[in-house]
Structure formats: structure tokens, C-alpha cells
Amino acid sequence: MMKNRTRSWAGRLLNIMLVFGFLWMVMSVLPRAAEELPTVSPESVGMSSERLQRVDDYFQRFVDDDLIAGAVTLVARRGKVVHHSSVGWNYREEGLPMTTDTIFTLMSMTKPIVSTALMMLFEEGYFRLDDPIADWIPEYGDHLVFERDGPRQRRVLEARPVTIRHVLTHTSGLTLNPTGAGLSEGDYRYVTNDGEPFTTIGERVVRAARIPGAFHPGDHWQYGSSTDFVAVLVEKISGIPIDQFLHERIFEPLGMADTFYNVPRGKVDRVAAVYRPTEAGGSELMRAPGFREPTNYFPGVAGLNGTAADYFRFAQMIANGGELDGVRLLGRMTVDLMISNHTADKNIYVRGPGYGFGLGFGVLADPTLSFDALSTGSYGWGGAYGTLYWADPVEDLIGLMFIQLPGHGPLNIRQRFTNVVTQAVVDSWADQRPIIRGFRLAR
């Protein structure tokens, strides 16, 4: 009897050891968690803890007034996180609180990441910025554009080819939307796939070649479909789908374990609900969280989902000149090129006065005209559901705010966010080292 008991306890002990061994193995290969971000006290990098509390207070007011359900915010300086917080609700109707690891629909904050992917191929010598996109998407050779002839519009051959620079800077005039294009019934059915969903973004871009451009390439800035062409160029040049390229070449190397086109079923419980403004001045549920069947349609203009912590890692890589934690995705001179203004004084109406546009990023050219309390050369972008990212290279400062509310414009919530962050910078100019192109020089 004693011998059998001994064997029983030995078996249980062996099982326990196997379970703990398995758990240790799983934990050892898990990606970096948000809590493992490089965090320091605000005072150690010239910011005020007391003043940073205003960030939470600011968003809590919007939650209390029922204007938004919740928010996640992150602030970093000199490569270190000084604030990472959540307020309100992830899914208000179910009483689920917002958490810092909530996954958000990024919408147009997809664009800087996809643009970065193409610039990685630029560094490998596959193209020049002013090469025509028709070299890889031949359907856009001899493309037509609309040209105004008095009160009427006519279709003419484009004055110059659409180039890679044009699609990166939103000066291509290209669109995937056939509305108002004056297409024949047959062409309209062709470019819309007869009303059926397209299988891939590549298929849709090829068919859209029958839609005339809004203007001659380079003449104007127009926000729209350009980054879809960037995504297709990544696929054509690399030979792999854009989602695979982003995962293998950007997300995995940077430790962005919670960023996807298709959110895995096991992480759906962390996805934020999407709300919309009401006529009465509040907000109501627009889209509940839930598992969505995976798709192979991976746009460049939108489509990614991710956390604030993940996006910070991408943002810090750009701020560092293309490198993070020993992983280099881009060279410093390439990053400088990307965050320089390529659009002169064209109207970047999405970001407002004072802004130009680089290769995938809005760039602040004149802070005296801008609504944002940021320095010359600051850059970033936002998403239609209320997400926003910016980096101030003069102050070595990054800010991210994530909400889920289309139609947030009248709240001015994103513009005022910059003020609430930058007021927490309290160090003296006497403590600063000279900065050239966003990189602090050693004394």
C-alpha cells in the first residue's frame, strides 16, 4: 500500500513539474507585453508627473460627458515611456473597462506603416522615388486624367507618369472610387467587380486603372486611395502579400505582437467597441467587438488593428532614425527623407494649416499656423476613428491617443491633446543639447 502511494505522489509530482515546465516554455517565447515598455519617471526626462495627470483628466471629461466611451494614451520622451494609461470603457454596454492592452481599429494609421514597408524596399535598390508605378502595375501606363475646360471636364492623357513619390505623398490623383467618373456601364461594372467584394487589393487596383485621375500627377494634394497603390507596389516588388511582409519585416522584428489585419480569435476579447456621435450630443454603439472571418483583402489606406504599446514601438523606431532595441529597419538618411516635406505649400487639408506631407507622414512646416502645440519638423498621422500619433523631434517627444469614434472632428479632441501633453515638458533649454534633423548631438 505504501509503495503504491509513493508511486502515486511521484506521478503527481512529475505531472506538476511537466505542467510548470510547459508554462515556463510558453512564457519564455511570449512577445513583450505592454507592461515591459521602457518606463521611467517623468521627472527623469524633464517632464512633470503632476502635469501629466492632466492627460487622464482631459479624457475623463469626455467620458463623463458621454462624448467618448474610453481612451488609451501613451507619452514617451527620449525613448522612455512616462505615461501609459486608460480611462473609460472598452465596451460600455457590457461594462468592460478600457485597458492599456486594448486593441483598436487603426484606420489611416495603417498608412505610415505600409509606407515604411515600401521605403525598406527603396533601401534595397529596387526603385527610385520618381520611377513610374507602371513599371510594376502596367495598367497605369498612359493613364487618363480629368482636365477642366472652362465649366466642363474632359479626359486627357496625363501630363507626366504617376510615380512612386506621387503615391507616397498623396499627389497621384488616383482613386479606387468610380463615382462621378463618367464611366460606361461596362467599365463601371468592371471597376466595381459588378458589386461583389474584391478578393485582393491588387485586383481592385488593376481594375481601377479605367478610372481617370482627378488631376495631373503632382499638381495637387488629395487624400484618398494613394496608399493602396503603395501596398500593391510592396506586393509586386517583394513577391509576397502585404500582410505577410508587414508581419515578417516590421511587426515581428519590433515585437509588435498585437498588430494585425485579421485579429486572431483568441484576442477578440481585447478589441474596443466603436461608437458614433448622436444628434443629442452623446455617443452610441456603432460596432460591437466580435470575431470576423479572416480576409485576404489588405488595403494600404486602412485595415490594421493594434495597441498603443505596439504603435509606440513603431513610432520610436522612426524617431530613432530607423532602429529600436538593436533592430534596424531603415537607415537614418531614409527616415530623414520620409519626414521631410515633399509637397511644398500644397494644402494638406486633413491636418490643417501649417502642415506639409512627407513619404507617408504629415510634417509640420510652420507651427505658427497650426492648431498643434508642436515644434517645426514634428510628424505623424491619425485615423478616422480617432487614433492619433505624433512625434516632436526637437523635444524628443512622442504622443499617442487611441479612441474609437468616427465623426470626432467637432470635439477638437485630437488637436487639444497635443497641448495637454506638451504642457508637461518642464526642463530648461539650458539643459538641452543641440538637435539636427531631430537627432540630439553629444557634447
Kindly list the characteristics that best describe this protein:
11 helices; eight-stranded antiparallel beta sheet; 2 domains; Beta-lactamase; two-stranded antiparallel sheet; single chain; disordered N terminus; 30% helix; 443 residues; alpha+beta
Set out the fold topology.
Layout: H1 2-29, H2 49-64, E1 70-77, E2 80-91, E3 96-97, E4 104-105, H3 110-123, E5 144-149, E6 152-157, H4 164-169, H5 185-191, H6 201-207, H7 226-238, H8 242-254, E7 274-277, E8 283-287, E9 305-306, H9 308-319, E10 323-324, E11 327-328, H10 332-338, E12 355-357, E13 362-364, E14 379-382, E15 388-392, E16 397-402, H11 413-422, E17 435-436, E18 439-440
Antiparallel strand pairs: 1-2, 1-16, 2-3, 4-9, 5-6, 7-8, 10-11, 12-13, 13-14, 14-15, 15-16, 17-18
